[in-house]
Every structure is written in C-alpha cells, then in structure tokens.
C-alpha cells in the first residue's frame, strides 16, 4: 500500500506540475503576443511618421496684391477710409499664375468687399477675422473659376489701417 500511496502522490504532484507549467506557458505566450503587438503598432506609427516626414511638401508661395487697397465707407455721419495690404499664400504654382492673370478680377472683388464694411464691424478682432475669411473665399472662388480648383491656402492682411 505504501507503494500505491506513493504512486498516487507522485501522479498527483506530476499532474499539478504539468497543469502549472501549461498555465505558465499560456501566460508567457499571451505576454509575448501583447509585447509583439505593441512593438508592431509602435513600428507602424514610426513608419507613418517617417513617411510623413520624408514626403516632399511643396514650398509656400506668397503673392502680395500690390498696391494696398484703399477704400472709403460710410460710418453714420462721416466718411471713413480703410487701407488694407493683402498677401495670398498657396502651395501650387498654377494658382499663383492664375491669380496673376486674374489680378483685375481679384482686386475688383476685394474692393467691393472692403468698401461694403462698416467701422463698427471692423473695430474688433472678430470683425477683422470675418473679413479675412470672406476675402479668402472671394479669392478662392475666382481661382477655382480659372483653374478648376481653389488652391489658395490662406490670405493675410499685411497692413490694416482705418481712419
């Protein structure tokens, strides 16, 4: 009987070791898969960042609309004047050429836009930003009519004087 008990004890100990070993192997596999997934995703992010960093970006092209715009507008009892320097930015050389060719049309649209403003509307920064957005939309529309795509990225006021 002693042999039978010792055999049963050894079998139980061996079964416990095998079950414990399987558990440790399972945990190790899960940990390795998790670490591998993390490293893979991190590598993908690094590759995406590298691709973004190495992708050639077209240089910014600035076109000043010279001379500055000078318009008058009514303010309750007096006539006021507005002088605005405008520069347009794009990344597309074709858009620069289209703006140069459409200079009279762009200047006309901006003169009409600037002269329709009120002193109260332009007195705060929100009014100036709104005017800037409207001017950008006007230029984009003219360029889109000429080239088929509105390749104007930004419009900047390089000077802004109200009197």
- Strand tally: 3
Structural class: alpha+beta
The total count of helices amounts to 5
Report, as a whole number of angstroms, the end-to-end distance.
Answer: 114 Å
Q: Regions with pLDDT < 50 over 5+ consecutive residues? A: none
Percent strand equals 15-25%
Mean of residue pLDDT values: 82
The CATH level-2 architecture of the largest domain is identified as 2-Layer Sandwich
- Here the CATH topology of the largest domain equals Tetrahydropterin Synthase, Chain A
Number of separate structural domains: 2
User: What order do the SSEs take from the amino end to the carboxyl end, as H and E?
Assistant: HEEHHHHE
* Rg over alpha carbons: 35 Å
Shape: elongated
User: In the CATH hierarchy, what is the superfamily of the largest domain?
Assistant: Band 7 domain
Function: Controls the rotational direction of flagella during chemotaxis.
Membrane topology: Single-pass membrane protein
Transmembrane segments: 23-40
Pfam families: FliL
Give a summary of the structure in a few sentences.
Pfam families: FliL. This protein is α+β, with helices and mostly antiparallel strands and 163 residues long.
Task: Outline the structure in words.
This is Flagellar protein FliL. The protein has 163 residues and is of the alpha+beta class. It has 2 domains: 55 residues; 102 residues, Band 7 domain (Tetrahydropterin Synthase, Chain A). It is built from 5 helices and 3 strands. The chain has a 3-stranded antiparallel beta sheet. α2 packs across α5 and α3 runs antiparallel to α5. The mean pLDDT is 82.
């Amino acid at each position: 009987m002693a042999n039978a008990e010792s055999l049963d004890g050894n079998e139980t100990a061996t079964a416990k070791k095998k079950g414990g070993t399987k558990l440790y192997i399972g945990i190790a596999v899960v940990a390795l898969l998790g670490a591998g997934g993390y490293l893979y995703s991190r590598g993908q992010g690094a590759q995406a960042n590298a691709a973004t960093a190495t992708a050639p970006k077209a240089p910014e092209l600035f076109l000043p609309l010279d001379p500055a715009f000078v318009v008058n507008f009514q303010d309750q009892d007096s006539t006021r004047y507005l002088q605005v320097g405008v520069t347009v930015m794009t990344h597309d050389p074709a858009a620069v050429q289209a703006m140069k060719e459409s200079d009279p049309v762009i200047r006309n649209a901006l003169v009409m836009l600037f002269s329709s403003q009120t002193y109260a509307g332009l007195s705060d920064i929100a009014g100036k930003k709104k005017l800037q957005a409207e001017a950008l939309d006007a230029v984009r529309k003219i360029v889109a009519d000429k080239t088929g795509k509105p390749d104007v990225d930004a419009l900047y006021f390089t000077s802004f004087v109200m009197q």
